[in-house]
Amino acid sequence: MDSGVMAKRSFGLLGALMLLFASVGTSVEASAQGPGSAGPLLQESPNLAFLASSPWVEANGTWFVQLNPEAIPQDGSISYTIREPLKGDVPAMRAQLKLQADGKQLGRQLQRPVTAPIAELRQPDGSVRIQVPIRSATGTGEGVLIPNSGSHPVTIKASTASGSVLAETTVYLNRLPDKDATAPLRLGILAVSTQGTPSAADGVDGLDDATLADLSRVGSYAEFARNQHLSYQIQPSLLERLAAQAKPAPESADDAGSVAAGATLTKLQQSVATNTVVSTPWAPLDLEAWADTGAPESATFAFAEGGLSTRQILQQPWTDSTLGFESTLGPKSVGLLQTLNIGKVVVVSGQLSDQVPPKATTGWNRPFTVVGSANSTVRAFQVDPDLQALLDLADGPSAQTVHQLLTTLFATWIGSDQPLGALVTLTDRTNPATAQAFLEALASLNTKGSPLTTVGVDDLFDQLEVQTKVPNKPDLVARTLMTPDTIADVGELSGMSANTERALAGYVSMVGAADPKAAELRRSILQSLDRTVPLESQLSLGRSSLITIGEELDQITMSPSRGLRVTAQRTEIPVRIANGLQRPVTVQLRFDSPRLTFIRGSRQTVTLQPGENLLSIDVLVRASGQFNMTVEATTPAAGIVLASSKLSIRSTTFSGVGLLISGGALVFLVIWWTRTLRRRDAQQGEPPT
């Protein structure tokens, strides 16, 4: 039977074909409401709005498309034409998709146009639905012959009864191969929190409405994606402020802001429970600026504290070896990442100086090597610019955009015989309706035999081979990062930060990390590294923190130097230390003396209660006489000297060893004297000869 006749018959059998085959071609019922998507690859007619279609269809399955024929007369008709698939490698297919967006190079027809009255296609909701059974081989079965797999453009026209074309659009029939092809394309989706006032701009712990809404946006994606894997990049300083706002004081327990913050925090915790969180510093850092100082300690501090906050608040470990997108990344930053033990990083095209990918590749569907200053290296994965453009632009219907996204992913998968991946981000620039429709479409896909699977961002690096210049060859593609347009001057801040961070480490080891004052100082010092805070404010935060820590440490004092007399070989030396703080603290005591052995060791950690503390230090006196003993009180970490004292000790006792030696000497002298006297007496008693 002629394929065109068979296609016409399919219009008359809508009742029998309203349900799709339970196959990979599961329908994607994407909402057409809300703001549109990125500039569409396909030009949609305003009178023939796209509603939904099969994302892809098996070689012998049924494909459908559903449209809204606005202002098309009831006696009008709709025709469709299936064309030959996109050809070539992945870059060639993507280029064809862009040309076909302008109605160019649509390819040759596979069959004559198929036409049916709108009345036969009309659904109860007023839309029209075209269903097309397809077959992959000639001579057997029914359906339109689609002999080759691939992305087939399908042009659809709406006409009046007289044949005048009123509207036209193009969609894609994505036909799967007859047999299992290469591994599914791995799609990484990174949800990024991008809003947020500077962490120290106003000194207020709470979040403004825009930041709270942005965090809620990030937490909502998991509701749409359901069983799909997402990754998250969330600024830890914002998480701390969110957690603080979610725990109101008793007198403000009914505060609406606290309720909203609590709900958002719960949503984020639930979202990341089965997903991954990538590494990011506590607050935004100028990575290239800090790398230029050659002192990585501040960056190490910011990343370590960011990880600690994320784990504590989200109750989920983060992937500390994978860095999310950072706009300040540059050539020198690569070496800094190595110091931080970060071996994977997300980049965008504008950060790369070399934009020419290897032949037959896009350059962003596999991880690649980035070479930085001093031959430092890191693996990178580039955000897919074509997919990102679709997600980010605000114009156009979201359902049509989802179709374009899935078609681009399908063409990427089928255009290569090597396993590939793709990476997109969901930010505050992403169209909310498009993001929701896309995630819901992914969640509705039949995973069996699917050409697409979602993975964590770190899995893109772990499951895909690093890009080489020639497939299956060891010669790696080495790309370079551009130097950021603006690099902050953090020279003065760097010198001060080294002191403040050391002082904080010592102070925290003395009072404990849970101490409210320690938490306040920690935050101030971390805020001083925040690049979104003006430099003068950064320096002011650092200086004031250092002064405050110094004043706290000065509250530990010791009695002045004094004399002491001991009369026993094993005894106790009294040491007085005053704690001027209103809470217990932990300090380390260091002892030194040439004639004393400290029974519990020359370093002892003790807890000092508020006020004066009298400590008894057990010692063993090794020798008598006059000697000194020095005592230093330091912080347990960082070894900051808090106070010291010198004791002048006079011992009138002998040690056991001294007595033994003295006794032995005395016995020797007695024996020697006795023998000498006997010899002299014997010589005097002999008669003269």
Number of discrete helical segments: 18
DSSP strand count:
27
Please state the second-level CATH architecture of the largest domain: Alpha-Beta Barrel
Unreliable runs: 1-41
Biggest sheet overview:
10 strands, mixed
The proportion of residues in beta strands is 15-25%
Query: What is the CATH topology of the largest domain?
Result: 7-stranded beta/alpha barrel
Structural class by SSE content:
alpha/beta
The CATH class of the largest domain turns out to be Alpha Beta
Separation of termini? 160 Å
C-alpha geometry: elongated
Write the topology of this structure.
Layout: H1 3-12, H2 14-17, E1 49-53, E2 62-68, E3 77-82, H3 90-100, E4 114-117, H4 118-121, E5 128-135, E6 144-145, E7 150-159, E8 165-175, E9 185-192, H5 209-225, E10 231-233, H6 236-245, H7 256-272, E11 276-279, H8 287-293, H9 297-314, E12 319-323, H10 331-339, E13 344-347, E14 368-371, E15 377-382, H11 385-392, H12 398-414, E16 421-426, H13 432-444, E17 452-455, H14 457-463, E18 478-479, H15 491-511, H16 516-527, H17 535-553, E19 556-558, E20 562-566, E21 570-579, E22 585-592, E23 596-598, E24 603-608, E25 611-621, E26 625-634, E27 641-651, H18 656-684
Characteristics:
689 residues; Immunoglobulin-like; 7-stranded beta/alpha barrel; 4 domains; 10-stranded mixed β-sheet; 5-stranded mixed β-sheet; 27 strands
Structure, explained:
The protein contains 18 helices and 27 strands. Helix 12 crosses helix 13 and helix 15 (491-511) packs parallel to helix 17 (535-553). It is elongated, with a radius of gyration of 39 Å. The chain has four domains: 3-179, Sandwich (Immunoglobulin-like); 186-479, 7-stranded beta/alpha barrel (Alpha-Beta Barrel), CATH 3.20.110.20; 491-553; 559-653, Immunoglobulin-like, CATH 2.60.40.2310. Residues 1-41 have low confidence and may be disordered. Helix content is 34%, strand content 24%. Strands 9, 10, 11, 12, 13, 14, 15, 16, 17 and 18 form a ten-stranded mixed β-sheet that branches. A five-stranded mixed β-sheet has the order 20-27-26-22-24, covered by helices on one side. A four-stranded mixed β-sheet has the order 1-2-5-6. The protein is an alpha/beta fold and 689 residues long.
